[in-house]
Design brief:
The chain is built from 25 helices and 24 strands. It has 700 residues and is an alpha+beta fold. The structure holds 2-(butylsulfanyl)adenosine (IVH). The site of 2-(butylsulfanyl)adenosine (IVH) has 15 residues, from strand 3, strand 7, strand 8 and strand 11.
Length: 700
């Protein structure tokens, strides 16, 4: 899309504009350049995944453009980078007729099916060998885009294939879809482009986490999340979900008067290259051409085994006859083109019988129904138990004991019940009754009005106490190795461990008498308990299991006070002054520190040797790395990755997830791979060894 020369020029323009921004700021003469520069950096970020400027620099330029356009509204163009973000709510999604019906694909499941497809294709064309183009089958929600005179004029969902919903406002929020594209350079006046909208695995995980924090049930898979997001009637919310799009098919085009069909539109591979060069994220890098079906079969198998390493979900591959003249010759049925076929990967769905429902009590008292199923293999693991979240979820999915249910395990996602299959009912299925009392301590359950979750509010409920201890000792909390869920339960049942402070006063002589506990395991357990006394304060805060306080909030809280009990004097308003602490989180923290028993527990822990004082402030000053960003790659000579990260953080540094211009230090060990290569291309990243890192933080 951008040649090396253009890239250099745009980089130069970026620097000029950033400099201008330091002085009087760009003026109307810079408008075009500002937009070009922003589009260029969006392309680097969203299509190439290889940004060349820091996010803050992008933001500065974006704000400069916004300001200029606000001062000169007549100069705003519809494809300006500022014109993505829709405001307000969308009233409805009008029907959108597709220019060409959106057909489906025929399916294949093994190499015999593919050989069969190839045989038929050769028969239909009369050729002895056919060239195929193979690309991933993206597991998202299909869309159609129309560009007219180089401008995106409409985005629509598939609907019934003939008519979908017009969701242009939402489509405009997807940063990998250009608002304008120079089709005219190919002599094209109007084009209809097909593709797939998806949410990558990381963003899907994050989204499910936010749902869980609100006590809502997670979505079963990224496909549903993408499809649902396209239909949200609030474009601002849509923008937050970080949708992405792959565009893989030009379903229709008309020519500018006097122009001939462009060379690119002679083959599928040509059309993908054209889309890529126009700034779309087409599967240009993922696709591969094969002279015959044998290579196709190998490529499909290769992709299937690497499926879990991709950042997004695919459910198969699509094999397309490459030559458009041959495609035309082969034609289509009313359902699918004869020149293409989907090769479906092994299913990650299965059906099973819902045998029973158990109700489990978590550390915050939330009562979660768990479906017990006839064991069934889904995507390589055997599933016999699945959370069904809450009462509303059961009602919404109309789940009954005895039902056949459809289960899905998408990628790394915890298995979910997609739906029940009511047609398979015999009439003997039983409704699921949610208990009125805690299944463990029998106290009455409560539910807040706007919540979906029933809770046991008895803080001494044995189930809650055990779960709190399990959370306290867990890896991301106090990291007390050698405990394990089963041991916590065992010690609790035997009366050897009653509460969190009890961890530090356990009678090891009695534990030594238990079956399976040798001197070595006791020594190890004792050692990891005493090691936990030196954990940083944020880990203790996280370990307390305060509702809505995850690791990030725990770090914010740890930085805010000299001593943990200072929070006794914080009002909800005070708490809300802290970064990312909203009313709900503030309410929960306040509630925790207003409870006498919690304060008593913290005082006991302090007496037992757990420091509640904030020692982070000291290290930040001595390390003097506040605001510096780090990333570790490869095997370090002495430090484990997690230990190195903790050291950097203790010294005030921040750990980044990937290499970008935001990164200050890449610490490299043996076998460093693509991160190192990438960092070498960015001048500002300092590449250092473990030894240099230790010097930097003053440990050597
Ligand atoms: S080509 C006329 N290519 O799979 C041919 N489809 O199961 C149009 N899909 O409806 C389809 N990745 O939504 C094509 N690389 C790809 C695809 C793809 C995902 C979807 C598409 C289609 C469905 C059929």
């Amino acid at each position: 899309m951008y040649s090396a020369d253009e890239t250099r020029q745009l980089q130069q323009a970026t620097r000029t504009l950033l400099k201008k921004n330091q002085t009087g700021g760009p003026d109307t003469k810079d408008l075009e350049s500002l937009r070009d520069v922003l589009r260029f950096h969006e392309h680097r970020y969203y299509i190439l995944n290889d940004p060349l400027i820091a996010d803050v620099e992008y933001d500065q330029l974006y704000k400069a453009l916004e300001k200029l356009e606000l001062d000169h509204p007549k100069l705003v163009t519809p494809d300006s980078p500022t014109q993505r973000v829709g405001k307000g709510l969308t009233a409805s999604f009008p029907a959108a007729q597709h220019l060409v019906p959106m057909l489906s694909l025929d399916n294949s499941y093994n190499s015999d099916d593919l050989l069969d497809f190839d045989r038929k294709a050769r028969e239909l064309t009369g050729l002895s060998e056919i060239e195929y183009c193979v690309e991933p089958k993206f597991d998202g929600s299909s869309i159609s885009l129309i560009y007219e005179n180089d401008m995106l004029v409409r985005g629509a969902t598939r609907g019934d294939g003939v008519q979908g919903d017009e969701v242009t406002v939402n489509i405009r929020q997807i940063r990998s879809i250009p608002l304008s594209a120079r089709f005219s350079e190919y002599g094209i006046q109007q084009a209809e482009i097909r593709g797939e909208v998806l949410i990558n695995k990381k963003n899907f995980g994050k989204y499910n986490e936010t749902l869980a924090e609100q006590g809502l049930a997670p979505l079963a898979n990224p496909r549903n999340a993408a499809a649902g997001t396209l239909r949200i009637k609030d474009p601002v919310e849509v923008a937050k979900r970080n949708l992405e799009a792959f565009l893989y098919h030009v379903s229709y085009f008309s020519l500018v008067k006097g122009k001939k069909t462009p060379e690119a539109m002679q083959s599928h591979a040509g059309s993908l290259k054209m889309l890529w060069d126009l700034g779309f994220r087409s599967p240009e890098k993922e696709k591969k051409l094969f002279k015959n079906i044998q290579g196709v079969i190998r490529y499909c198998a290769e992709f299937e085994s690497g499926r879990d390493d991709l950042p997004y979900e695919i459910d198969g591959m699509v094999i397309k006859v490459n030559d458009f003249a041959l495609q035309d010759k082969m034609g289509m049925t009313s359902h699918h083109p004869r020149w293409a076929i989907a090769y479906k990967f092994k299913a990650r769905q299965a059906t099973s019988k819902l045998l029973n429902v158990e109700f489990q009590v978590g550390r915050t008292g939330a009562v979660t129904p768990v479906a017990k199923l006839e064991p069934v293999a889904v995507g390589g693991v055997t599933v016999s138990s699945i959370s069904i979240h809450n009462e509303d979820y059961i009602k919404e999915k109309d789940l009954r004991i005895g039902d056949q249910v459809l289960i899905e395990r998408a990628g790394d996602v915890i298995p979910q019940i997609v739906k029940s299959l009511p047609d398979a009912r015999s009439g003997k299925e039983k409704k699921i009754h949610f208990p009125k009392n805690c299944p463990v301590c029998e106290s009455i359950l409560f539910k807040e009005e706007e919540e979906a979750v029933w809770r046991c509010v008895n803080l001494d409920c044995p189930a809650q106490v055990v779960e709190r201890i399990i959370h306290f000792v867990s890896k991301d909390a106090m990291d007390i190795r050698g405990f394990g869920d089963a041991n916590v339960r065992k010690f609790y049942e035997l009366g050897l461990l009653k509460d969190v402070p009890g961890i530090y006063t356990m009678d090891f002589a009695s534990i030594g008498k238990l079956e399976g506990f040798g001197q070595k395991s006791i020594d190890n357990l004792q050692k990891s308990i005493s090691n936990s006394l030196t954990q940083p304060l944020y880990r203790l805060i996280y370990a307390l299991g305060i509702r809505f306080v995850g690791e990030t909030t725990a770090k914010t809280l740890a930085r805010a006070v000299q001593h943990l009990l200072d929070f006794k004097n914080y009002s909800q308003e005070d708490l809300q002054q802290l970064e990312d602490v909203g009313p709900k989180v503030a309410g929960s923290i306040h509630h925790f520190f207003s409870n006498r028993e919690n304060i008593h527990m913290l005082e006991t822990l302090e007496k037992l040797g757990l420091p509640l004082k904030n020692d982070q402030k000291k290290t930040v000053n001595s390390g003097n790395l506040t605001g510096q960003t780090f990333l570790f790659t490869g095997t370090l000579p002495t430090l484990k990755r997690s230990a190195a990260e903790a050291l950097a953080e203790e010294a005030g540094g921040q750990i980044l997830g990937g290499v970008s211009a935001k990164l200050n230090y890449l610490v490299v060990g043996e076998d460093a791979g693509s991160k190192l290569e990438k960092a070498r291309k960015i001048n500002t990243v300092k590449i250092i060894s473990e030894e240099e890192f230790l010097k930097l933080i003053g440990k050597k």
